[in-house]
Design brief:
The complex is a heterodimer. Chain A has helices spanning 5-17, 54-66, 87-91; strands at 2-4, 24-30, 33-40, 49-51, 70-78, 99-104, 111-118, 121-125, 128-130, 136-137. Chain A is α/β, with parallel strands linked by helices. Chain B has a single domain, classed as Beta-grasp domain (Ubiquitin-like (UB roll), Roll), CATH 3.10.20.30. In chain B, 26% of the residues are buried. The chains are: A alpha/beta, B mainly beta.
Chain lengths: 140, 69
């Protein structure tokens, strides 16, 4: 997955802004190339859980379509645990076709890792950081 | 055969067909998804009783959530 530095920076910033709770959102783009991120509300408002609001998901879906883009990943933060899927993350990873990006704030520096999760099997996905501006950030 | 759109892709289906059957035919489990039919939210409890019609546009999104446990 190719992600602009500016988008990754914005996702990390959101993760810090929403402490102590988990932050979450969607990444839209095309052919594995992220164009922009959509921060979403964590309706669980919890440091240990997150859930999307389906209405916000559909809004992003339609905006992405209007731009000729697709939802290619979701993301959430782990405020105090490593950047790897928890058992709950794996159990609730229903969509086999998207990438799951996790941003950990547990260490001195933020750590972002991406995964494919299919039928409970977790496979790391390489993140290629792209410098320069190809994307934009959407407001909530 | 009748044509409906599922996540913007045209699918040929045999009517009558419930929303539950359509979701299952698309390899999803009804309890794991949110659905809009022609732009309107359909509550999960109404999936079995919602029959599709020619030209319907259905959007299916997976529930997304997780945790640290």
């Amino acid at each position: 997955m190719v992600i602009p530095q500016s988008v990754l920076d914005a996702v990390i910033r959101q993760a810090y802004d929403e402490l102590p709770n988990e932050a979450c959102g969607l990444l839209v783009g095309l052919n594995g190339q992220v164009h922009q991120h959509y921060p979403l509300n964590n309706v669980d408002h919890s440091p240990e859980h997150f859930s999307f609001d389906p209405k916000e998901q559909f809004r992003v879906l339609k905006e992405a379509r209007a731009d000729g883009l697709k939802i290619i990943a979701n993301y959430h933060s782990h405020p105090a645990t490593p950047a790897r899927p928890s058992q709950e993350d794996i159990r609730l990873a229903y969509d086999p076709d998207i990438i799951y990006l996790i941003v950990s704030l547990a260490g001195e520096k933020p750590d972002a890792k991406a995964f494919s999760i299919r039928n409970g099997a977790v496979t790391p996905v390489e993140i290629e950081i792209k410098h320069g501006s190809i994307g934009a950030s959407a407001s909530r | 055969m009748s044509k409906i759109k599922v996540n913007e892709e045209v699918q040929e289906v045999t009517l009558p067909l419930s929303l539950t059957a359509l979701i299952q035919a698309n390899s999803a489990t009804p309890e794991m998804v949110s659905v809009q039919l022609n732009g309107e939210f359909i509550p999960q409890e109404k999936f079995p009783d919602t029959d599709l019609r020619e030209g319907d546009e259905v959007d299916i999104l997976y529930f997304m959530g997780g945790g640290t446990q």
